[in-house]
Every structure is written in structure tokens, then in C-alpha cells.
Design brief:
With 142 residues, the chain is mainly α. Helices cover 88% and strands 0% of the residues.
């Protein structure tokens, strides 16, 4: 037999007649609003808790696997980027080495030119002084 609202009202009226209005209403309020088959027991709640725990564990395992895969992909990308940067830095270092070599060569050439010009100028100055000195001496003798 299924309990519907009509059966509940009949039971409430019978309880009021047998126990009195207040007591009958109190007893009816202690009963669940639907059949006992719809009431969850402790066993039902424990089974539900176990199912929820299993789902959380499975979800956590999937999340861990996904995070591990993501971490592996990120590590691979970072390693590839680092290798590319190492190659670029090596190329930049090679360029700087070439520039340093050119500057050294330029500096050596420039210093050589300055040295030659200074020597040439010194000889010209000395020659001019000797020539002027010779003219002065010749002019004095006249």
C-alpha cells in the first residue's frame, strides 16, 4: 500500500481522536513527510560518501596525469627555448669576438699611422731647424 496525502490526513484524524489534538499533531510532525522508502539511512549515506570519495580520487588522478603531461610539455618547450637562446648567445659572442678583432686591427693600424706621422713631422721639424740654423750662420759670416 502506498501512502498518499489522503491516508496521512486519515491517520492524523485517528491519532487526534485516540491521543488528543495536541498529541496527535505532535506525533504526525515526528513522522517523515513521505514514505519510509524515501528516507536515507546511515548505510545509504556511507555508501554515497564512498562513491563520492571514489569519484574525487578518480578526478584527482586524472588531474595529476594532466598536470604531469602539462609539466612535461612545458619542460620540453623551456628546454627548446633555452637551447635556442644558447645558440643565439653563441652567435652574439662570435660577433663580438669579430668586432674586438677588427678594433684591435684598427687600433694597431691607427697607432702605426700616428707613429709614422709623428716621426715624419719630427724629422721635418729637425730639418727645418738645421736649415734655418745654417742660413743664420751663413748670414752672420757674410
Amino acid at each position: 500500500m502506498t501512502v498518499d496525502e489522503r491516508n496521512r490526513l486519515q491517520l492524523a484524524e485517528a491519532l487526534k481522536r485516540v491521543l488528543g489534538d495536541s498529541e496527535g499533531i505532535t506525533l504526525m510532525e515526528l513522522l517523515p513527510p513521505v514514505g519510509w522508502a524515501d528516507v536515507a539511512t546511515r548505510h545509504d549515506l556511507l555508501a554515497l560518501e564512498q562513491r563520492i570519495d571514489l569519484r574525487f580520487d578518480a578526478s584527482e588522478e586524472r588531474s595529476d596525469r594532466k598536470l604531469d603531461a602539462l609539466e612535461s610539455r612545458l619542460d620540453a618547450k623551456i628546454s627548446a627555448l633555452a637551447a635556442g637562446m644558447d645558440l643565439r648567445f653563441a652567435a652574439v659572442e662570435a660577433r663580438f669576438a669579430g668586432i674586438d678583432h677588427r678594433f684591435d686591427r684598427f687600433e694597431h693600424q691607427l697607432l702605426g699611422q700616428v707613429d709614422r706621422r709623428l716621426r715624419s713631422q719630427a724629422w721635418m721639424t729637425m730639418s727645418t731647424i738645421v736649415a734655418v740654423g745654417g742660413v743664420i750662420v751663413a748670414a752672420i759670416r757674410l
